[in-house]
Amino acid sequence: MKFNTLCVIGMGYIGLPTASVFASKGVQVTGMDINTAIIKGLLAGKLHIFEPGLQDLYVSAVGSGHLSASESVKPADAFIIAVPTPFYEDKRADLRAVVSAAESILPHLKPGNLVILESTSPPRTTLDIVAPILEKSGMKSGEDFLLAYSPERVLPGRILRELVDNPRVIGGVNRASAEAGRDLYRTFVKGDIILTDATTAEMVKLMENTSRDINIAIANEFSRLAQAFDVDIWEAIGIANLHPRVEILNPGVGVGGHCISVDPWFLVEVDPEDAQLIKQARQVNDEQPAFVAGLIQKAAGGLEGKTVAFLGLAFKPNVDDLRESPAVELAQHLINAGATLYSYEPYRLNAGLPGITQVDSLESALVDADVVVLAVGHDQFKALDPLQIQDKTHADLVFDAVRGWKKEAWETAGFRFNGLARKY
Ligand code: SAJ
Question: Is residue 147 part of a domain?
Answer without folding.
Answer: yes
